[in-house]
Design a protein that fits this description.
two-stranded antiparallel ribbon; alpha/beta; nine-stranded mixed β-sheet; 11 strands; Stationary-phase Survival Protein Sure Homolog, Chain: A; 303 residues
Length: 303
């Protein structure tokens, strides 16, 4: 090889190496020179379209472990299974179908006969105990999780379990009147990339627990995201009662959207007005107001 040829090839080599670095950095949202690791779960079950939509979106830039309930587990809060649990590793096509085949992805699927919170605990402490997840994503739930509903939500309960294990997590929910899962997943992915890459969040010693709700209607009609505080319940629950001749009763829950007005700037208020809502939750934060009330109790000084 002549000196002239060497001079010609060297710039090409530099360009190629530079392009490779740029591509690697574009695929690395953690800032640590690797693809992020994300645990995905939900409470609607492994066959839910919301789960499928977020998986297809996230696996373009992250390595995923999907650990989801075998069946719908809505309303399970942070309930934990203390019994024998069946864990079944399933193939990609079984979960997503043949049309979702994609080369170069690294997604593992587990269907678990357990609550969402248990799925998270199993994934973190057993299924992937040699790894550390950069983020835990719960959802996309079909139905908003706002206000006091977050206390019973299995979607939020799974994110809370991740938080309790010291991991950053986010719960994603879509208005029950909408089927815009793919559009929601695309918008959620933008947020998730930022969460993965934000050094100020990564460096925090307190993990983030973020509850996110997406409104009804096409994503093009959504209004700007708002930081909102918890409001009231989005649902009203009743019971259809069947009384049997032996004196027993069979009660079937009936759920409808609440018609009660909501306080301004709360999550439900903003969601009803077409905004995406972001609400940080901190289950272990001290209740200073409650402490002040308890300090006044004579019981504290009684013997």
């Amino acid at each position: 090889m002549t000196h002239a040829h060497s001079c010609f090839l060297t710039p090409l080599l530099v360009v190629a190496l530079t392009a490779a670095v740029v591509i690697a950095r574009a695929d690395d949202t953690t800032g640590h020179g690797r693809r992020p690791r994300v645990l995905v779960t939900n409470d609607d079950g492994i066959e839910a379209p919301g789960l499928h939509a977020i998986v297809l979106e996230l696996e373009s830039f992250a390595d995923l472990l999907v650990a989801a309930p075998e069946q719908n587990a809505s309303g399970s809060s942070q309930s934990f299974n203390l019994r024998k649990i069946t864990v079944r590793r399933v193939g990609r096509e079984e979960v997503l179908g043949d049309e979702s085949r994609r080369d170069g992805v690294n997604t593992t699927f587990y269907a678990i006969d357990a609550t969402p919170a248990t799925c998270v605990h199993l994934a973190v402490t057993h299924l992937a105990k040699q790894q550390r997840f950069d983020l835990v994503v719960s959802g996309i739930n079909h139905g908003q999780n706002v206000g006091v509903d977050t206390r019973i939500s299995g979607t939020v309960g799974a994110a809370k379990m991740a938080f309790d294990l010291g991991l950053r997590s986010t719960a994603l929910s879509l208005d029950v009147r909408s089927e815009e899962f793919r559009g929601t997943a695309a918008r959620a992915a933008t947020l998730i990339k930022e969460l993965l890459g934000a050094s100020r969040v990564q460096s925090s010693r307190v993990p983030l627990l973020l509850n996110v709700n997406f409104p009804q209607g096409p994503p093009t009609t959504w209004k700007a995201p708002l930081l909102a505080r918890l409001g009231g319940s989005a649902y009203e629950v009743g019971y259809h009662v069947q009384e049997n001749s032996d004196g027993t009763m069979i009660l079937e829950p009936t759920v409808s959207l609440s018609t009660r007005s909501e306080v301004e700037n709360t999550d439900r208020w903003a969601l009803e007005r077409g905004h995406i809502t972001l609400t940080p939750l901190a289950p272990d934060r001290r209740d200073e107001d409650g402490e002040a009330q308890v300090k006044k109790l004579k019981f504290l000084t009684s013997k």
